[in-house]
Structures are given as C-alpha cells and as structure tokens.
Amino acid sequence: MDAPPLAGKVAALSLGALPVSYALSRVSALSHPLAVALMSGLILAVLFVVVYSLSHGEISHDPLYAVFAVFACTSAVDLMIALQEDGYVTGFVDFYTKEGEPYLRTAHGVFTCYWDGTVHYLLYLAMAGAIRSRKRYRNLGLYWLGSFVMSVLVFLPGNILGKYSSEVRPSFFLTVPYVLAPCWAGMRVFTQSRAPPCCTPDAVQQEQRKGLLQRPADLVLVTYLILAGFFTLFRGLVVLDCPMDACFAYIYQYEPYLRDPVAYPKVQMLVCMFYVLPFYGLAAYALIFPGCSWLPDWALVFAGALGQAQFSHMGASTHLRTPFTYRVPEDTWTCFFLSNLLYALGPHLLAFRCLRWPAFFLQPPPAGPPEHLKKQQ
After folding, report:
1. Could you read off the pLDDT tens digit of each residue along the chain, which spans 377 residues?
2. Angle, to 10 degrees, between the axis of helix 107-115 and the axis of helix 295-318?
3. Rounded to two decimals, what is the model's pTM?
C-alpha cells in the first residue's frame, strides 16, 4: 500500500488551535468548570463550521474528512497538554487541565495525550490526505479505530472508577460526541471496499495446502499468541486480586503500577482479558486453518489497540507523576520492559504478516468442473 500524502490544509488548521488555546488560557472567566465546558463545546462547533466551509468538496466525497480534520485539531491540543504537564511548555491549556479534565494530568493521561498528539495526529493527516487524493485508507482507518477504541475503553471508565471520580466536571460530557463520531467512522471504514487481492487462484491453493509446520513464521506467531494469551490471563487475574503466590509476587516486584488507585491499569488489564484474549485464540485458529478472511482486518484493529495500550501503560509505569511506590522497581525494569515491548510488537508482526502475504487467509477459489467434463467440452 502506497503511503497517502499528508493533508497540508488540515495540518495548517490544526496548528491554528495552538494560539487559540494560548489566548483562552489568559481569559480569567474560564476558571469555572461550566464555563470551560461551554467554551470547549462552542469552539468545537465553530471548528466544524470552518472545516465544512473550507473543504466542502472533500466532505462531499467522504464525510469522514470533517471528522479527521476536527480530531487533528484536538490532537494538536493534546500534544500541548502532554508537553505542558512534563514542563516543556507553559501557559497553553492550564485552564482546561485545571477546570475541564484534571485527570489528564495523571501519568496515564499524559501518555494518552502523547499518543493522540503524535500517532493519531499523523493518522488523521494521512487519512485526510488520502480522501483529498481519492486514495484508499482502509488499513490506516482500521489501525486508528483500534487505537482510539482502546483509549476510550480504558480512559473513560478509569476516570469514573478511579480516585479522580470526584473530579468529573461538565467537560466530561463532551466525550459523548467524541465517542459517537468514531463509532460512525468505524462502521464506514469497515464497509469500505478492500484492495483487490494480488494472488492468483493457483497461488492461494498452493499456500493453503501447506500445514503449520511448513510455515515456520506462522508457527512462531501461533506460539507467541499462546504465550501472550497466558500473559493476558495472568495479568487479568493479578488485578482481580488472585491469591496465588505468583500473582502476589508479580504485582509487588514487577508491575506495582497495577495497584495504583487511578484504576487505569486495572481497567486496561480487564479489557485485555475480556477482548484481546479471545482474539488471540481466534487468531491462532486462523493461522492454522486457511480461509479466515477476517483476520487481516482484525489484526490491524488489535495492533492499533495494543500499541496504544502498551505505550500508555509502559510510560505511566515509569513516569514521575506515578507515586514512587507504584513505579517499576529498578532491579526488574529490564524484565518489565522486554515483556511489555514484546506484548506490543507481536500484534504488529501479525498484522504485517497478514497484509504482506495474504494468500493463506483468502477464500479458496471455487472448484472447477471435473477433468472428464473439461475433455468433453
């Protein structure tokens, strides 16, 4: 798949959000949570009108252009939030992190903003550029969908269930359109046509005749999926306070961040146990038995989901905003880093394998007429 060009118009518009946020931080009236929520909603409405007026042609071709343009602006602001909380910049979005969504100042919130301000931002520019150039962006959209959904599934429940539950302000309800829009976008991305297969029917049949032992790369992936499944189940049991000695030792010696009362790590481990673990089982099945055409799409979705989840989890586990007692101990840091890095890279390798060599997952071609009938014809 050729990389689509980045949307210069969307990039320029998103960078315009920075001076606006800086100016708003100087307005003393925005020291009340309700005022922050109303102003944020007004800005989003104005931004949508501006995007629609400047890009009517692109929106007529694909309405998701407006979604990606507006979200690119919010991603730019999220990056400034993360940089400000880490002390690299000052005075941009103080009013919002103090009176709007104070849980963005947690370690998990900071790294969620970093991911949104970098990976999501580039994806928005790439997908908007693809729409402008009338190119396909289905694979990029699936990766973004998984990443965004994982972010929402962990961050929003964590805000309500963790120690910041009493800090929920009116701005929290702005997440309603922020969640509904990606749901609609995800359905549109899934219904887009796939790229035509580049494999001949003979190549598909030849690949699907091979057993698992004849495909060493798939054998390694199946082994990884089994081990990653056990790791997922184990960490889910850890956050559920399993009384096993191994769980007790792990949560105190390797990942004490799982005990942090902010609740984000607990929610993430449970989301992985209930959603990622079944996918690992189904993916292992699809690597053994041919013709599972659903795997390439869902491998991209889960690669995006686990990329976002592990980035936020690994970063928050070592960040200074996490209390010292919940950070990864120095003597187990290498084990923690390597295990979590492999847990993040595995789904990406699976997605790469599915996209690079898709013949095994294509539907087998229909059987032709018997040989004696061919001779009669």
Report:
1. 555 666 677 888 888 878 888 777 776 555 677 777 787 788 888 888 888 887 878 888 889 998 999 899 899 999 999 999 998 888 777 777 877 788 888 999 999 999 999 999 999 999 999 998 888 899 999 999 999 999 999 998 988 888 877 777 777 777 777 788 888 888 899 888 887 777 788 888 888 899 999 999 999 999 999 999 999 999 999 999 999 999 999 999 999 999 999 999 999 999 999 999 999 999 999 999 998 999 999 999 999 999 999 999 999 999 999 999 999 999 999 999 999 999 999 999 999 999 999 999 987 766 555 545 545 55
2. 140
3. 0.91
Radius of gyration over alpha carbons of the chain, in Å?
23
d(CA 137, CA 58): 14
Q: Dihedral (C-alpha) 101, 270, 111, 324: value to the nearest 10 degrees?
A: 90
Are 110 and 86 a contacting pair, CB within 8 Å? yes
Between CA 306 and CA 150 the distance in angstroms is 8
Other beta carbons within 10 angstroms of residue 259's beta carbon come to 15
Q: Could you tell me which of 127, 25, 24, 19 has the C-alpha nearest to residue 72?
A: 127
Six-digit token string for 95: 């009013």
